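User: hey, got a sec? need DNA-binding HxlR family transcriptional regulator folded
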Amino acid sequence: MSDATTRPRKRSYDDGCAVAQIMDVIGERWALLVMRELMFGPKRFTDLRADLPGISANVLTQRLEGLEAAGIVARRRLPPPAGSQVYELTDWGAEAEILFRVIGRWAARSPFLAPAPMSVNSAILSMRTMFSAERAGDLRCAFALELSGLEFAVNVADGALTIEPGRASHPDSRISGSPDMLVRALYGGESVDALAAEGALRVEGDAALFQRYCDCFPLPERAPAPGPFPLI
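Assistant: Yep! Here you go:
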C-alpha cells in the first residue's frame, strides 16, 4: 500500500485567503509558541522542550518539521566544539514578531486573562508590546537584564525601547531574577524595592530608575465580560 493511502491527509482550510493558508501551518497547536521561543535566537530541541514544558517530544518534532517545511524555521549544526543541531527562525519567520505584538496587546484585554508562569521570551516580547512612549517621556536609561541566566541589553531613549540579547555596555543598573518576578514589577503593581527586599529581584545600581522604567508598561483596559445567556 502506498504512502498516499496510509498517511492521513493534512487538514486544510482550502481557502485562497493568505491568512487561511498560513493558518494551515501556524494554526496547529503549539506552533506559534514554538515560534515565540525562537524569536531571540537559535535553540536546541532540548532547550525548546524546557521552555515549553507542556509539549511532548513527538508534538514538538511535528511542529518543527511543519514550520521548517513552510520556510518559517530552519535548522543548522553549530560549529565545533559545540556541534549541536539548533533551530532558528528564517528572516521571514522573524518578521512574525509583529503578530505577537498585535495579538499580545489584543489578548491582554481578555476579561479572563489570569496570571500564569511566563517564559523568558514571553516576558521580553511583552515589554516590546506594552511599552508606552507617553509614560516614558524623557526617560533615558540602560539596563543589563538577566532572566533565568539569559542576558539582555535594555535601552530607553527618545521615547523608544530596544531590548536585544547580549551583554549591556555601561548599564545604569543590573537586574536579575526570573521572568515571573519581573512581570510582578511590570504588571503586578509591586514595587522594585519590595521585590528586591524579598529577594525576588536582584538590583545592582539605580533602583529608582529601574522603577521608573517598570512604570512604562500600562496594560490595556479589559474588555467587558460576557453577560449571562438569555433564557429562552
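Quick note: Residues 1-8 have pLDDT under 50 and may be disordered. Let me know if you need anything else on DNA-binding HxlR family transcriptional regulator.
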